[in-house]
Specification:
The chain has 132 residues and is an alpha+beta fold. It contains 3 helices and 4 strands. It is elongated. The N and C termini lie far apart (36 Å).
């Protein structure tokens, strides 16, 4: 791990932790001081390369799950470019960042208690998923 990655993660962890805290309380926060170098490397790659893609994937899946109840809004002009608001609800970090490591990412609607999608990951690939 180089200091550039650590500095990037440190700078971007605060906004992520605000969202995580909203959905899971203080125990859901990620503390930089408790992270191993591999986990910092993992978080850096997640934040810079993969997170937005997973958020978009979950947004589409959750939207499809609720399509029937949202259908009445979809044809209204004011909702033409509307996107279902979703946020990261939780991240279970792998102990060691290596090829095929297992970890979990929870992404859900923005309000507490809303629909949430869990992505069970192997490396950077989705191995399994569930909606709660």
């Amino acid at each position: 791990m180089d200091t550039t990655k650590r500095d990037y993660v440190k700078a971007n962890l605060s906004p992520l932790n605000k969202i995580l805290n909203k959905h899971g309380g203080l125990e859901n926060k990620i503390k930089l001081t408790k992270l191993k170098p591999d986990q910092i490397d993992f978080l850096h790659e997640l934040m810079t390369q993969h997170l937005e893609g997973y958020i978009e994937y979950a947004r589409e899946e959750i939207f499809d799950f609720h399509r029937e109840e949202l259908q009445r809004y979809l044809d209204m002009p004011q909702y033409k470019d509307w996107k279902l608001p979703v946020e990261v609800h939780g991240i279970t970090l792998p102990q060691k960042f290596e090829e095929g490591c297992e970890w979990e990412l929870q992404i859900g609607r923005t309000w507490f208690g809303g629909t949430q999608m869990g992505l069970i990951m192997k490396g950077w690939n989705i191995d399994d998923q569930y909606i709660v």
